[in-house]
Amino acid sequence: MGICDGRVVIVTGAGRGIGRAHALEFAAQGARVVVNDLGVAQDGSDPSDTPAQQVVDEITAAGGEAITSTHDVADWDTAGEMVQSAIDAFGSLDTVVCNAGIVRDRMFVNSEQAEWEAVLRVHVLGHAAPARHAAAWWRAQSKAGAPVAGRIVNTSSGAGLMGSVAQAAYSAAKGAIASLTLVQAAELGRIGATANAIAPAARTRMTEEAFADMMAEVEGDAFDAMDPANVAPLVVWLGSDGSADVTGRVFEVEGGIIGVAEGFRHGPRVDKGARWDPAEVGAVVQDLLREAAEPTPVYGAG
After folding, report:
1. Which residues in 82-102 are b (16+ Cβ under 10 Å) and which e?
2. The pTM of the whole model exceeds 0.90
3. HSE-up of 154 (CA within 13 Å, CB side)?
4. Where are the domains of the chain?
């Protein structure tokens, strides 16, 4: 018995790294899993169905149920086909874990339009499209009187919450995902669906290259804090029936640490009751900044 017995789950970007760990843990907890992955390189090139199929083979060898998906999750219609494939194969859909992503590291002043378009497409559309089609199906189920326990689990990043030097496009995309999660949670609660996001730190193809020393595998019996499998338990719980009262939250997860990120909130302010003169504003802003909490530093700054 597992906490996701009988649930049907889509995991995007599930051929390697964090997504693979999600798919394996969902299956271990009783879910039937759609393993989605284009099998591309870090920059989105050279697609292959091999990584997704290897994960499916692992799941079925362990006695679980899974199918392969090589749908492009950033294509609106194709993402809908992926959602329909889950329903056709397993008769339902309960959880969508949006994890697929690419990176194009570049200092902002050197960044190019094509890099921005590629990163925003995969991350933002690749989160919005699958969840939108799943939500439409859940809404139809709700209107038909069927119980709905839909779960969306998005993948933001510390880069999206605090920013990261040389990752302007990636940071912007991951920040958009955090905001998207808030809107999904506010709109979908009425039909029985929740939306949450994670900001994980773990060993992936992206992080191994950027933070080689930090992400190195730990030898022996010591706890390997950067093992991507450490992220999966929180995601699987968020994708289960048990998380029905948790929505609109972003969780930071690293090793054995689970934390709740606290995002933008209203801070100190002054109301003059009339229009400000530009010459007055500087002193007011300085007073407000003295009252406000210091922002968390951007990753890689200083």
Report:
1. bbebbeebbeebbbbbbbbbb
2. yes
3. 35
4. 8-260
CA distances from 231 to 74, 252, 256 (A): 24, 9, 9
Distance from the Cα of residue 12 to its chain's centroid: 10
- How far apart are the C-alpha atoms of 146 and 156, rounded to whole Å? 31
Length of the chain: 302
Question: Exposure string (b/e) for 160-174, b if CB count within 10 Å is 16 or more?
Answer: bbbbbebbbbbbbbb
**Tokens 């056709």 -> residue:** 88
> For the segment 109-161, what is each residue's pLDDT rounded down to a tens digit?
999 999 999 999 999 999 999 999 999 999 999 999 999 999 999 999 999 99
List, by residue number, the catalytic residues.
157, 170, 174
What is the C-alpha separation between 292 and 269, in angstroms, rounded?
A: 9
**β-strands 257-260, 250-254: how paired?**
antiparallel
Match 């030898």 to its residue by tokens: 219
How many C-beta atoms lie closer than 10 Å to residue 6's C-beta?
Answer: 12
pLDDT band at residue 44 under the 50/70/90 scheme: very low
Q: Which helix (H) or strand (E) holds 197?
A: strand 193-201
Options 3.40.50.720, 1.10.645.10, 3.30.1330.90, 1.10.3720.10; CATH for 8-260 is 3.40.50.720
- The full DSSP string for 233-245 is HHHHHHTSGGGTT
Is the separation of the CB atoms in 69 and 90 below 8 Å? no
> In sequence order, which residues have a C-beta less than 8 Å from that of residue 287 and are 6 or more positions away?
270
- Rounded to 5 degrees, what are φ and ψ at 242? -70, -10
